[in-house]
C-alpha cells in the first residue's frame, strides 16, 4: 500500500496562555479554523478532530488531554464542546 502524501497549510496555533480575553480569542481562532476545514473539504468528523488538535498546537493538546467528556476519536463536536467549556467558562 502506497502512502498518501499531502502538505498541510500554514495556520497559526491558538495561544492558550496569552493575556487578554481568552474566550473571545478562542471563538475567533475556532471560526477561522472551521473555515479552513471548509476550504480543505474536510468533512469526516474523525479527521476534523485530528486537524483541530494538530492545528490548535501543543498547548491546547496538553489542555485537551486533561479534559473529561471529550468523546471518542470520531467525535469532533464533543471535542469542541469540551474546549469551549474550558476556554469560554460560563
What would you say this structure looks like, in words?
By secondary structure, this protein is mainly α. The protein has a domain at 43-89. It contains four helices and no strands. It is globular.
- Rounded Rg: 13 Å
Which structural category do the helix and sheet elements fall into?
Answer: mainly alpha
Q: What is the terminal-to-terminal distance?
A: 48 Å
Strand/helix succession = HHHH
Q: Main sheet?
A: none
User: With helices defined by DSSP (H or I, 4 residues minimum), what is the helix count?
Assistant: 4
- The shape, in one word, is globular
Helix content: 55-70%
Relative strand content? under 5%
Q: What ranges have pLDDT less than 50 throughout 5 or more consecutive residues?
A: none
Mean pLDDT: 93
Total E-strand runs: 0
Keywords:
57% helix, 90 residues, single chain, 0% strand
Quick summary:
This protein is mainly alpha-helical. The chain has helices at 22-39, 45-56, 58-66, 76-87.
Strand-helix topology:
Elements: H1 22-39, H2 45-56, H3 58-66, H4 76-87
Helix pairs in contact: 2-4
